[in-house]
Design brief:
Helix content is 42%, strand content 16%. It is built from nine helices and eight strands. α3 packs parallel to α4 and α4 runs parallel beside α5. The protein is globular, with a radius of gyration of 17 Å. It starts with a strand and ends in a 5-residue tail after the last helix.
Length: 263
Amino acid sequence: KKMTLIGIDAASSDRVRLISTHLNKIMAKPAAAEEINGAKAADATTPPQLSAYWTAGIHPHSAHLHETEFPILDDLIRTAMTSKPSTSRLVAIGETGMDFFKSRGSFEQQRDSLVKHLQIAKEFDLPVIIHAREADNELYDVLKQFAPVAGVMHCFSSDAAWMDKYLALGFYISFTNNITYAKSVGIQDACAKCPLDRIVIETDSPFLPPQRIRGQSNEPANTRDTFEQACKLRRIWGDEGKMSEFQQALWRNTHALFRLPME
């Protein structure tokens, strides 16, 4: 059983066919305000063979645009959560966060955008998807002000010490195929130590392909690489009983994180 998060702009018929061969749940994430109409359509055009869910947010790389884009996003979220809240497929806010590695936004722009996301997540009691890259100190200072608002540390790229701080705030920790890279020692250590009831996995497709296809485009099917490497790091690879327990925990955690019905 697998679940993924995809960009709504990438959800062409070919891409959906590819994903649906490997997954029985799809989550769609509108990455920018110009995709809002597609996000609204996603709620009404779910393929019958899939259970589709989506999230809404402005990526930190676009935080410099938040003053013009967030009002549009705010309208989308409010429409989804107030028109038919019991049947809305909007399950989280984000991704949002801070990135001092390559974001075009200033610290102030990223902070202000993050705060707006956290405020609306608090208002509608939704989890948040947090992006963090070389920004843990500044990000943590903002997140702790909004506790108990929590969610998931998406594509975790820090170490076990920071993981413990985010866990204490109530976050789940999500690992991607960067755990297959030899130099990702700190991330690998965090994956090995993450509590069984707080860990989830992903691919961050089309980015961060596993080491075996480094340099190529990633896809959701490569979650199997994340799972295999996580098992090896947690020293359970080859133990069918413990691997099954881990797989079931990942399934439960993902449903708990996004408050999805267990099937």
